[in-house]
């Protein structure tokens, strides 16, 4: 008499057990809970909780992969579906891909945070320099610390821009009071009045002459 041994894969054995030997109430509860699951802050925590309910739900791996994907954030699920090697072949592939992409995202976010902080500091320093320049232009004075910094950067003491010294500053002449217009000579005044007079019509010229006669000119 010979015995026939049938070799079962662990996956098949697990699925058979879930189908036939779990109490109905445990399976029903697990199915309700697993279908409502959504990933929180971390993919690895989501995977661990999902695996516990997956073992109790009685669902096969194909159904579980669909439910697992549905619980992922859209961006993460989209990355997994469009990865160069194609979508995962099985449930474990989904677990591994979710954890991998989530860790990559968190690492990139952690690296970018100091850079954003640095950029904010640079903007703040630039604003403070600009404010110092405005104050200096209003008061006409620079502190010793400002002078040293301006000399180090090759900046003008007058306008805080680079490329020239304060004695050659374009703003130097702009700060001077505008000169009064030179007074016209009688000859220049007469020529100007005559030119203006010619622009009037004959009637207007006649009327203007009458007014001048009345005023004693």
TrEMBL record:
SMART domains: ZnF_C2HC. One of its GO terms (biological process) is mRNA processing. SUPFAM superfamilies: Retrovirus zinc finger-like domains (SSF57756). It comes from the Eukaryota. Keywords: Metal-binding, mRNA processing, Zinc, Zinc-finger. Residues 155-170 form the CCHC-type domain. It holds the Pfam family Retrotrans_gag. InterPro entries: Retrotrans_gag_dom, Znf_CCHC, Znf_CCHC_sf. One of its GO terms (molecular function) is zinc ion binding. This is CCHC-type domain-containing protein. The lineage of its organism: Eukaryota, Fungi, Dikarya, Basidiomycota, Agaricomycotina.
